[in-house]
Amino acid sequence: MASKRPAQQSGIHRSIYFVITEAEAPGTWSYSFSVGNRNFSGRVQAVLGLLAARRVKMKIDRALLHDASTEAHTDAVTKPDASPTSTPSPVNRSGSATPSNTVAFTCAACNASYEAVQVRTAAKGIFRCTACYWPVHQWDGAHDYRSWRRKT
Fold this sequence. Notes:
Layout: E1 8-13, E2 16-22, E3 28-35, E4 38-45, H1 49-78, E5 100-106, E6 113-119, E7 123-128, E8 135-141, E9 144-150
Antiparallel strand pairs: 1-2, 2-3, 3-4, 5-6, 6-9, 7-8
């Protein structure tokens, strides 16, 4: 007798990869996804896999909102506005640049202004607007961006 494999779905919502697997109980789905360095998993109740996916997407939205508000609050508390905004320094042929610069970014969706410290470290990441969750800046290369904060 062939065993029935549980249904499984995966997808990407707001640049977050998630997986949904049908649990043994009918109408119950297990999910997992990661936001930043935090992992989320649990169960949702839904008759159809598409409805379960929608509920997981809502959980991702809440996790992103919580992560963005926590990060913005932490940066506002720990980093006073003391550094002037400048443009990134040019990189010469050997690939060296100044160790760090403060750079400014603007959200294309809602025009919110942000600034971050650009550090010469190979890294990748994405920063989302704390107001509308739209990607403000995405990087994968010779620089990393730290101390993101919204400019008032």
